[in-house]
């Protein structure tokens, strides 16, 4: 019996390893690191930086709580970020954007190169007032972290010069390394003023969910299935053993034993003979 149970475990184990769920979830429900769907401990504020020299002073004079504007600082930052390579930005992006902290302390985060992974809510092309090198347009992505039904989603805006890949709104998740520029205050389509982190990037790229690491642990549903499968296998083994014992005690077996006993008795000599 123990051998049968061990064999069942060996058969079921590889199948469960193949069906183990990925950590990366549906994009709108759970976004993996960098931008967490379930907020962890707040990121510490970045160390102070000298804005006079950072990005050749492009961040000096950046004003928070204002609407979109093609200022000289904005144009300079777009131009400088377009000259970075993806590898350089990825190497310098050492922290994840903390949206509430950035809105509360924009001066502490201004100029910080941050990582963002979020859902694409809206994407638009904006014509520049004056071309930047060979660029006549900039691209603007409205991103959102869906934190669940009981929490308000965190939004942010990213502007960049490189044309984005084909993206499906409200379904595709993007990765981006960007510079925190300022707090944007704008009036949305419903006439409500919104404050969002305003980021400047080189480009955005679609998050490859197929490359996400697979979970090495079983989900609750998988554990329930395993328990049910093992219980079913054990029950079948016990029933098989019981059926075998009942077969040994069946009427046909008992009758065969009686007939054999009678046949042996008929061949024995009588125990005593009458004298005449």
Defining traits:
276 residues, OB fold (Dihydrolipoamide Acetyltransferase, E2P), 2 domains, 5-stranded mixed barrel, alpha+beta, disordered C terminus, 7 helices
What's the helix and strand layout?
Elements: H1 2-18, H2 72-82, H3 86-92, E1 95-96, H4 99-104, H5 106-109, E2 113-132, E3 135-145, E4 154-160, E5 173-187, E6 193-201, E7 205-206, H6 220-248, H7 251-266
Parallel strand pairs: 1-2, 4-6
Antiparallel strand pairs: 2-3, 2-5, 3-4, 5-6, 5-7
Helix pairs in contact: 1-6
Task: State the order of secondary-structure elements, H for helix, E for strand.
Answer: HHHEHHEEEEEEHH
Helix share, percent: 25-40%
* Uncertain stretches of 5 or more adjacent residues: 19-40, 215-222, 272-276
CATH superfamily of the largest domain: Nucleic acid-binding proteins
Which strand order spans the largest sheet, edge to edge or round the barrel?
Answer: 2-3-4-6-5
Major β-sheet profile: 5 strands, mixed, barrel
Number of strands: 7
**End-to-end separation:** 65 Å
Q: What would you call the shape?
A: rod-shaped
Name the average pLDDT.
Answer: 77
Write the CATH architecture name of the largest domain.
Answer: Beta Barrel
- CATH third-tier fold name of the largest domain: OB fold (Dihydrolipoamide Acetyltransferase, E2P)
List the total number of helices: 7
Class of the largest domain, according to the CATH hierarchy? Mainly Beta
Indicate the proportion of strand residues: 15-25%
């Amino acid at each position: 019996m123990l051998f049968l149970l061990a064999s069942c475990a060996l058969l079921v184990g590889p199948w469960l390893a193949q069906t183990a769920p990925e950590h990366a979830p549906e994009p709108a429900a759970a976004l993996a690191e960098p931008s967490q769907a379930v907020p962890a401990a707040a990121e510490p504020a970045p160390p102070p930086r000298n804005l006079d020299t950072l990005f050749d002073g492009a961040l000096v004079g950046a004003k928070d709580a204002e609407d979109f504007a093609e200022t000289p600082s904005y144009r300079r930052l777009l131009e400088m970020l377009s000259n970075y390579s993806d590898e350089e930005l990825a190497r310098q992006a050492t922290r994840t954007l903390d949206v509430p902290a950035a809105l509360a302390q924009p001066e502490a985060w201004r100029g910080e190169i941050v990582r963002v992974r979020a859902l694409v809510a809206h994407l638009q092309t904006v014509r520049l007032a004056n071309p930047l090198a060979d660029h006549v347009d900039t691209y603007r992505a409205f991103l959102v972290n869906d934190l669940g039904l009981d929490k308000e989603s965190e939004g942010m805006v990213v502007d960049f010069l490189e044309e984005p890949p084909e993206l499906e709104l409200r379904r595709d998740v993007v990765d981006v390394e960007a510079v925190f520029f300022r707090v944007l205050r704008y009036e949305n389509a419903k006439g409500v003023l919104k404050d969002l982190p305003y980021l400047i990037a080189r480009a955005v790229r679609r998050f490859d969910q197929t490359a996400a690491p697979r979970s090495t642990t079983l989900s609750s549903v998988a554990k329930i299935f395993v328990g049910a499968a093992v219980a079913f296998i054990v029950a079948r083994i016990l029933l098989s053993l019981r059926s075998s014992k009942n077969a040994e005690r069946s009427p046909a077996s008992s009758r065969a034993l009686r007939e054999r006993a009678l046949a042996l008795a008929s061949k024995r000599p009588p125990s005593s003979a009458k004298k005449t």
